């Protein structure tokens, strides 16, 4: 149905032809299509019988293009090349929330678990690799409007293999857990799964020890989205899987006890209410929740009271405690909850890494799985969306650069002349965000650290001053002359003048402007810093679970006030540095790519929303990638494989050709009648320029 490889589309520059081919295949449950060696995957929103052990064995050890496109072909190809060439690989899985990234990652892990060599000892490693997923999903995934199991963090997992090709260990890196979800959820969304799993699945004695009731409606942090119970999610069953996973991953009962004590303490924190005393200061009249927190975390009541209702300031070279008003006390409470949860997640990842670590010092090869958030374009995009979309711009840059590099190297290796390929280089977008001293992140750092009053507006004024004339940046000052912008950028579609607190970034992919309205800070407000800054600045080493809490609550960490968006300064810089490290890791490995597409917003099987998919094709740079792959030759294949496939078309090569394969192919294509402009003969491969030439040969 259609073509299995977009490279073979006659109208390869036509977005309509691209979508038509995708639709044809999707309607026949053919959810996978190649662009060269890149796999495009469309979420079917239903179970398909294509992930059986029989299917796994079918793709095992088979040449990449011999069978129809499949996730297993990507996994097997990376594995076979790693084993034969003894080099490292990575598989980058990207796409919007709800496109199927997490499922794709799990399917690849399962493929290696079934098809790789094993022993009884290795089976333990294999089980730990597989069962690390439900634990990370419980603490890092949540129901959103787009997806019932949306990853709210980025994950890179290295699977380590020994010289026999057996999986012997692993290591996980996590990126930007969405801590704001702990204290706030939009309508129709939930907090992280673990809270609901604990209440629904935890036994009566455990809940009693934690001071919890089974009804999630009792907890302020769980009901803001007004959908604590979801028909499609079985929290009780998921709880059983997570509890089993903890025992396999080598968590002690003490670890688990501390961990659930922390989870419960976050729920108790959300139920703390503040009242105003006669001096306008915040006080906690009902001490029930704070007593539970004190018991569960082993933190003295006075330290908790101080962290939630006071800040430290300097007065005449001395530190004094200054009481908070009610509004600031609520911000302090939420900051503590986010700090504790963020540190708990980091501790959890470190603990899992400890159980996956391979102590053997012999050399190993790795296949990395990168399951990373896709572009998120909402009506108003927060700081987290800014980081997510910056990450995607960096990965798009990497994809194009590595594809171009691979193409150029193959041409040079085969002795075929390389012709430069025109493409949109998004380095200009990445520089706008990350450039030293001039980029948005550096300006944010600078503005937050400068003496005096820094606000959202002063930050945006600084942006206007430093990057206001950038072709891909628009703020309030420039939307006043919207008509002149339309002459410069006809594809710019927004009709409103930006608010003073907003700015707009857009990337031009040919005639398409990807517009993202950002609003870091919806209102000017201050909050106490002491709960945040140690969590943001100090490194977390694997240790006792209760240390997470004590280090998150230390009030002496930082003095005074910060603006609410000052949290962004540290997170942005850390995220940029983490992303730079990740890119370096990926650049040292051989790449494979899986681009996941969400076919509709309602998770309906069989529904293909053209408008939604067209946008994703643009965001994911698929047409750009296709253009790079098709700029020279649409098809290339090793002489031996080409001859094996088509030798029956020429009397001289059928049934057996006894000379070198290259000479056999030359004889074969002369007999068929290939014209000189239709092909080139390399050192080990034939290169065919036009799809129609190949299709005619197939016919």
UniProtKB/TrEMBL annotation:
<dbReference type="GO" id="GO:0030048">
    <property type="term" value="P:actin filament-based movement"/>
</dbReference>
<dbReference type="InterPro" id="IPR036961">
    <property type="entry name" value="Kinesin_motor_dom_sf"/>
</dbReference>
<keyword id="KW-0067">ATP-binding</keyword>
<dbReference type="GO" id="GO:0016459">
    <property type="term" value="C:myosin complex"/>
</dbReference>
<keyword id="KW-0009">Actin-binding</keyword>
<dbReference type="GO" id="GO:0005902">
    <property type="term" value="C:microvillus"/>
</dbReference>
<dbReference type="InterPro" id="IPR036072">
    <property type="entry name" value="MYSc_Myo1"/>
</dbReference>
<dbReference type="GO" id="GO:0051015">
    <property type="term" value="F:actin filament binding"/>
</dbReference>
<feature type="region of interest" description="Actin-binding">
    <location>
        <begin position="579"/>
        <end position="601"/>
    </location>
</feature>
<keyword id="KW-0518">Myosin</keyword>
<dbReference type="Pfam" id="PF00063">
    <property type="entry name" value="Myosin_head"/>
</dbReference>
<keyword id="KW-0505">Motor protein</keyword>
<dbReference type="GO" id="GO:0007015">
    <property type="term" value="P:actin filament organization"/>
</dbReference>
<dbReference type="InterPro" id="IPR001609">
    <property type="entry name" value="Myosin_head_motor_dom-like"/>
</dbReference>
<dbReference type="InterPro" id="IPR027417">
    <property type="entry name" value="P-loop_NTPase"/>
</dbReference>
<dbReference type="GO" id="GO:0005524">
    <property type="term" value="F:ATP binding"/>
</dbReference>
<dbReference type="GO" id="GO:0000146">
    <property type="term" value="F:microfilament motor activity"/>
</dbReference>
<feature type="binding site">
    <location>
        <begin position="95"/>
        <end position="102"/>
    </location>
    <ligand>
        <name>ATP</name>
    </ligand>
</feature>
<dbReference type="GO" id="GO:0005737">
    <property type="term" value="C:cytoplasm"/>
</dbReference>
<keyword id="KW-0547">Nucleotide-binding</keyword>
<dbReference type="GO" id="GO:0005886">
    <property type="term" value="C:plasma membrane"/>
</dbReference>
<dbReference type="GO" id="GO:0006897">
    <property type="term" value="P:endocytosis"/>
</dbReference>
<protein>
    <submittedName>
        <fullName>Unconventional myosin-Ih</fullName>
    </submittedName>
</protein>
<feature type="domain" description="Myosin motor">
    <location>
        <begin position="2"/>
        <end position="699"/>
    </location>
</feature>
<comment type="similarity">
    <text>Belongs to the TRAFAC class myosin-kinesin ATPase superfamily. Myosin family.</text>
</comment>
